[in-house]
TrEMBL record:
InterPro entries, sorted: Beta-grasp_dom_sf (IPR012675), MoaD_arc-typ (IPR010038), Mopterin_synth/thiamin_S_b (IPR016155), Sulfur_Carrier/Prot_Modifier (IPR052045), ThiS/MoaD-like (IPR003749)
UniProt xrefs under Pfam families: ThiS (PF02597)
Organism: Synechococcus elongatus (strain ATCC 33912 / PCC 7942 / FACHB-805) (Anacystis nidulans R2)
Protein name: Uncharacterized protein
Domain of life: Bacteria
Length: 91
C-alpha cells in the first residue's frame, strides 16, 4: 500500500531533505517503523522511549487527527496521505 508522508522542515535533515515520501504500511505504527528502516534516527524524533508519539507532534491521516481516530493503531490504505505536523504554541 503506497502511503504519502509529508515531512515537516525540521525533520527533513533525517530524510535527505525530502519533504514528501512514499512508504508501505498498514497502520501508523508500522509507518513509523518503515520510516526508521529507511531513515535511521527519525523515530527517536517522533516517538518517546515507550514508542508513543511525542506530545509536541500532531499526525494526520487524510486531514484527520489520529488522536480522534485510533492513535498509532490508525489503519492506512493505498493512497492515504499522512502529515506530521509539529505543534505550535505561543500567543
Amino acid at each position: 500500500m503506497a502511503i504519502t508522508v509529508l515531512i515537516p522542515t525540521p525533520l527533513q535533515k533525517f530524510t535527505n531533505n525530502q519533504a514528501s515520501l512514499e512508504c508501505e504500511a498498514s497502520d501508523v505504527k508500522s509507518l513509523l517503523e518503515a520510516l526508521e528502516q529507511s531513515f535511521p534516527g527519525i523515530k527517536a524524533r517522533l516517538c518517546d522511549e515507550q514508542g508513543q508519539l511525542r506530545r509536541f507532534l500532531n499526525v494526520y491521516v487524510n486531514s484527520e487527527d489520529i488522536r480522534f481516530l485510533d492513535g498509532i493503531q490508525t489503519s492506512l490504505g493505498n493512497g492515504d496521505e499522512v502529515s506530521i505536523v509539529p505543534a505550535v504554541a505561543g500567543g
